[in-house]
């Protein structure tokens, strides 16, 4: 029973990460479309935010499996 609950937790973490990164990417594309001259700043901020989302998702998966 514990293994299946851990799998559900890991799956929820993966879904959350996918949604978060998708939202970050979509918002970044919106911002770049509105202000193409700020593309490099937006891209840098997007990559940093995506890295933070991935780190939190990885941490959640580890906690769920432990």
TrEMBL record:
It is a multi-pass membrane protein. Pfam families: ATP-synt_C (PF00137). The chain crosses the membrane at residues 44-65. The record marks 54 as: Reversibly protonated during proton transport. One of its GO terms (cellular component) is proton-transporting two-sector ATPase complex, proton-transporting domain. Keywords: ATP synthesis, Cell membrane, CF(0), Hydrogen ion transport, Ion transport, Lipid-binding, Membrane, Transmembrane, Transmembrane helix, Transport. Gene3D superfamilies: F1F0 ATP synthase subunit C (1.20.20.10). Residues 6-66 form the V-ATPase proteolipid subunit C-like domain. The keyword Membrane applies. Its main location: membrane. It is found in: Cell membrane; Membrane. InterPro entries: ATP_synth_csu_bac/chlpt, ATP_synth_F0_csu, ATP_synth_F0_csu_DDCD_BS, ATP_synth_F0_csu_sf, ATPase_proteolipid_c-like_dom, F/V-ATP_Csub_sf. One of its GO terms (molecular function) is proton-transporting ATP synthase activity, rotational mechanism. NCBIfam families: ATP_synt_c (TIGR01260). F(1)F(0) ATP synthase produces ATP from ADP in the presence of a proton or sodium gradient. F-type ATPases consist of two structural domains, F(1) containing the extramembraneous catalytic core and F(0) containing the membrane proton channel, linked together by a central stalk and a peripheral stalk. During catalysis, ATP synthesis in the catalytic domain of F(1) is coupled via a rotary mechanism of the central stalk subunits to proton translocation. PANTHER family: ATP SYNTHASE LIPID-BINDING PROTEIN, MITOCHONDRIAL, ATPASE PROTEIN 9. Belongs to the ATPase C chain family. This is ATP synthase subunit c. The gene is atpE.
């Amino acid at each position: 029973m514990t293994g299946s609950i851990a799998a559900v937790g890991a799956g929820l973490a993966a879904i959350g990460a996918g949604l978060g990164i998708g939202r970050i990417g979509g918002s970044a594309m919106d911002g770049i479309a509105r202000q193409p001259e700020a593309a490099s700043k937006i891209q840098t901020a997007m990559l940093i935010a995506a890295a933070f989302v991935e780190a939190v998702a990885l941490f959640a998966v580890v906690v769920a499996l432990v």
